[in-house]
């Protein structure tokens, strides 16, 4: 009987130890922030073809609104910043696979994207996009696009909008880059209109006086947020705090203004 009792206690202790070893509490697990800090750098994915949010400047450096926000996050973490440039359509998979710690690429949170990644608090709000045309165009509403050629960037919510409202009614052409690719094909007459993000459209129209906004798509919603690994709670809380501080201090508005003016100035 005594041996049996000792054996059972041994199983319980061993099982409990095994459980603890295999099921470490979240507080004891290595957090996402710990991994980033131990590595000494924050790896951020972007698509550097979307000025003034992210682009390569004349000196060959990554620049733009999202790059500046990424710098603030890395600074708050006390680590170096590494930017990985890739096609926009590959960014979600990069977060999912752990190739990057987060994505900053003017990415709008959507229900589809939220199935595989988490998002921070939005750092700005805007409409789903705007339809941009040449200044002499008569396009002024959705129906005016029927029978026309419309350009959208691959993997964006603007592409989703075009597929929902224009598929079978207009010829939808996809591109990897908004600038200069989509602007160039519009100016050349290869497409009749392009659908792009509201803030990028405003900057492009200032830079290219031959363009204008035909109409706005949808009502203002979350414009962009930081895409994070699913379940990276500690990292999300940290990033949310950085964004909140930037917004409350007015620094976020200053970043948007400074980076837009810098890009328009050709720097």
Automatic annotation (TrEMBL):
Domain Solute-binding protein family 3/N-terminal positions: 41-267
* Main subcellular localisation: other
Name one cellular component (GO) term: membrane
Q: Which Pfam families match?
A: SBP_bac_3
SUPFAM superfamilies linked to this entry: Periplasmic binding protein-like II
Query: This chain belongs to which protein, by name?
Result: ABC transporter substrate-binding protein
Report the subcellular localization.
Cell envelope
Q: Which UniProt keywords apply?
A: Signal
Q: Which domain of life is it from?
A: Archaea
MF terms from GO for this chain are: ligand-gated monoatomic ion channel activity
Q: Which PROSITE patterns match?
A: SBP_BACTERIAL_3
Give residue ranges for domain Ionotropic glutamate receptor C-terminal: 41-266
């Amino acid at each position: 009987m005594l041996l049996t009792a000792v054996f059972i206690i041994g199983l319980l202790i061993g099982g409990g130890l095994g459980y603890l070893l295999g099921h470490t509490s979240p507080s004891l697990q290595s957090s996402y922030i710990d991994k980033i800090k131990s590595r000494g750098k924050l790896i951020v994915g972007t698509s550097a073809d979307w000025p003034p949010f992210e682009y390569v400047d004349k000196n060959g450096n990554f620049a733009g609104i999202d790059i500046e926000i990424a710098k603030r996050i890395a600074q708050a973490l006390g680590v170096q910043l590494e930017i990985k440039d890739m096609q926009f359509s590959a960014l979600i998979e990069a977060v999912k696979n752990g190739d990057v710690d987060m994505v900053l690429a003017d990415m709008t949170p959507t229900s589809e994207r939220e199935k595989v990644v988490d998002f921070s608090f939005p750092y700005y709000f805007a409409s789903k996009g705007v339809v941009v045309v040449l200044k002499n165009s008569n396009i002024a509403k959705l129906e005016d696009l029927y029978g026309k050629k419309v350009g959208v960037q691959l993997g964006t919510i603007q592409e989703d909008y075009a597929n929902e409202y224009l598929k079978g009614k207009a010829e939808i052409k996809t591109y990897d880059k908004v600038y200069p690719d989509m602007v160039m094909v519009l100016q050349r007459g290869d497409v009749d209109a392009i659908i792009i993000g509201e803030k990028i459209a405003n900057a492009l129209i200032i830079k290219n006086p031959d363009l204008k906004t035909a109409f706005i798509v949808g009502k203002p919603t979350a414009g962009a947020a930081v895409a994070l690994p699913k379940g990276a709670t500690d990292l999300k809380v940290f990033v949310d705090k950085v964004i909140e501080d930037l917004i409350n201090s007015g620094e976020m508005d200053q970043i948007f203004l400074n980076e837009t003016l810098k890009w328009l100035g050709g720097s």
